[in-house]
UniProtKB/TrEMBL annotation:
Stated name of the protein: LysR family transcriptional regulator
GO annotation terms (biological process): DNA-templated transcription
Entries under SUPFAM superfamilies matching the protein: Periplasmic binding protein-like II
PANTHER family xrefs: HTH-TYPE TRANSCRIPTIONAL ACTIVATOR TTDR-RELATED, HTH-TYPE TRANSCRIPTIONAL REGULATOR
A GO molecular-function annotation: sequence-specific DNA binding
Residues in LysR substrate-binding domain copies: 5-209
Family label: Belongs to the LysR transcriptional regulatory family.
Pfam family, one: LysR_substrate
Database matches in InterPro entries: LysR-type_TF_proteobact-type (IPR058163), LysR_subst-bd (IPR005119)
Amino acid sequence: MTINKRLRLDVPEAFGRLHVLPLLLQFTEQHPHLLPHVSFTDRFVDLQDEGIDVAVRIGGAEYWPASLGHSYLGCERMIFCASPDYLAKRGVPTSINELVSHDSVLYGKADGSTTPWLILNNTGLVERKTMEGRIIVGSGEAKVSAVKAGYGIAQLATWLVRDDIKRGDLVMILPELITDGLPLHLMWPIGRQLLPKVSGILAFLRKELRIN
């Protein structure tokens, strides 16, 4: 099947750069007549109004509009991490009570609110714990930078910190507290999936793209 013409895609900023773009480049190499136009944004995008063929989104709607097709690809895995230097100074927490007494690096929203920690309790239920925050930033990659700089412990997605942990730049804490985070979805305007360029990239990403 020959796939050609312009293909508009919108992907999350950090996840898109780290995990989606390498796959898109691979797909484009297989289909040299394809002309991808890739935008990177974490904001809500109206796919119809902005002419987007396919979007990759972390998170999902409570109710999907009839005008959008969507595919679920899995959930984030959330872990607690800190830098080796921070843990050398403050000690490694060995319980939830010790964990929540440490400095924390939090994700902050534009409205001034922060994302709570998701903590798996001893009954198997996930509790939402609001933390004070030694530093609050509005970017996942900025959270990683602050944690590496020794500002405290953060709850981070494995897709964002896997390489840092392998290199020893970050240390995973209390692995028994791993929880599911947000879901990963492909989205497209209904009807676009009939175009070869759209059906092709959807099939490729369903097979290759993972978040956990």
